[in-house]
Design brief:
About 15% of the residues lie in helices and about 40% in strands.
Length: about 280
């Protein structure tokens, strides 16, 4: 297996760093899947057991100037590895004004992703800082555990308000309860609610808009419903706040799909990044 890539555009570099920073806020460790044309950051905690899951997809051509990959075999030209997202972010952060960044898969006592950062220098000798991030290469037989999660048949799909606005609201609610009810309808309305023995708080959003999913079968179930009817899901506030920290990617839009009482599925879209995040309902 071999992998090497190079990045020299500072804009791409900063954008990639923001994406990895977002991933590191969502999860301590994740799986990095490399294919010839894409990179994926995957977290597949079993939603059924109350864990969140994440699927983030990037086109390598939008970030890297060079990208070479030899996977586990000709037939399966991919590499899967576990890594600590925060370690990758820390290494990238040291290189915010770099002239170039080279990334490759190496073997130094253990498999590593090695980042060689070329920094600007006043002399003719370039300064190169190297970071070795240990990774665990995942054997082919386990790859099926990291499939793209299927989009559930949702009851409501709605655009979210700006993540920063929503984060400020949820931050304040966190002081009152560990859980929050997120409800929305087909009329572009969404409420964030907290109900405890002592207090009941609701924040209303309206005119958010509902995405149209065309031929998507999951919308069939919504055709005959009263657009005013709210569908809701009760979630762990900390898990929701983790997702709302994604604002630094500056997404063009964020879609929220609710399966009533069961799961909330967020899709964050940027021109060259898509990130899906699933939070199961709190029983």
């Amino acid at each position: 297996m071999r992998f090497r890539a190079k990045m020299i555009d500072i804009g791409c570099f900063n954008h990639f760093t923001r994406v990895v920073n977002t991933i590191s806020k969502l999860t301590k460790t994740c799986t990095l899947r490399l294919t010839t044309d894409k990179l994926y950051f995957i977290l597949s905690d079993k939603v059924a057991n109350g864990g969140v899951s994440m699927w983030c997809e990037l086109s390598q051509g939008n970030f890297f100037d060079e990208f070479q990959l030899e996977g586990v075999s000709t037939e399966h030209n991919e590499i899967y590895m576990d890594l600590a997202a925060e370690n990758l972010f820390r290494a990238l952060k040291t290189a915010h004004n770099a002239k170039s960044l080279k990334i490759k898969l190496t073997n130094k006592h253990c498999p590593c992703i090695t980042l060689a950062v070329e920094l600007p220098s006043l002399s003719r000798v370039s300064r190169v800082v190297t970071h070795d991030i240990p990774v665990g290469v995942i054997p082919k037989k386990l790859w099926n555990d990291f499939k793209e999660p299927s989009v559930p048949d949702f009851d409501v799909s709605i655009y979210l308000p700006p993540l920063k606005t929503m984060k400020n609201v949820v931050e304040r609610m966190k002081n009152l309860s560990n859980f929050l009810v997120l409800e929305a309808n087909l009329n572009g309305e969404m409420n964030l609610k907290i109900e405890t023995d002592l207090v009941s708080v609701t924040t209303h959003f309206k005119d958010l808009g509902n995405p149209s999913w065309g031929d998507n079968g999951s919308q069939d179930s919504t055709q005959d419903r009263d657009p005013e009817t709210m569908m809701d899901v009760k979630v762990d506030i900390r898990k929701l706040l983790q997702f709302l920290a994604c604002q630094q990617v500056n997404p063009s839009k964020v879609i929220c799909n609710i399966v009533n009482k069961r799961i909330v599925h967020f899709i964050l879209l940027h021109e060259d990044v898509s990130l899906q995040y699933f939070i199961p309902a709190h029983a």
